[in-house]
Amino acid sequence: MSEALHFLLRHGYAVLFAAVCAEQAGFPVPALPFLLGMGALAGEGRFGFGMALGIAVLASLPGDWLWYELGRLRGYTVLRVICRIALEAETCVKRTENTFLRHGTGALVLAKFVPGFSTVAPPMAGMLRMPRLRFLALDSAGAALWAGAYLLTGLLFRRQLGQVAALAAGMGSWLAALLAGSLGFYLGWKWFERRRFVRLLASGRMAPEELLRRIESGDSPAILDLRHWVEYERDGGHVPGAIHLPPEELRQRQQEIPRDRDVVLYCT
Hints:
The chain is mainly alpha-helical. Helices cover 67% and strands 4% of the residues. The protein contains twelve helices and three strands; from the N terminus they run H-H-H-H-H-H-H-H-H-H-H-E-H-E-E. Strands 2-1-3 form a three-stranded parallel beta sheet, with no helix packed on it.
């Protein structure tokens, strides 16, 4: 934190703009330390709070707008590419869909407070064909709320931030090793869980050719299309005879699942 503060003192608003812009574009650059640091410096009169807030909002728009337009053009392909870094690509996509379905497009206002959701929310808005002016208004409001909250936190707790920075500097390499080890353990565990889940799924898979053969031979299993409504309507392609049963409706409509035939689950 102390290095970030000294860097801000030398370069000020330009550094804040670059950090926020890079994070919102999807680069692994954390903007939080710079927002907190700029808020602390604004509390000491070295920078203007309003100017810092405006710059942070403006810096968030180029990256979000780029992802929004890519979402309009490429849809789910963009979401899956972004979600690859989570080691749970499909879970990430579905979680984003569910958030929009529950909270509507207004979820954009709070998206930046949720790790990971900040990057996938703009392409999802584009995929849903949210009007461009509405997206710009909601995204700007969300950026102002997000940046303002952390700038204000830095302003109010500037003395405590200095103490934390001094403690971190005292720990030096030990702190870096601890953080690196924790991150490595987390990534390794997520990779192990993913591989185990993939092996479990592979044991129960049916190739499309096998399903077609069974349908043509008269031994047709019950086919459940588990795609969410957004994806179902967007993709257009439907399996003949399949029952469309989104996951959120499984409990209410479970009586529609045949009990006298094999059941094939279809999703993307």
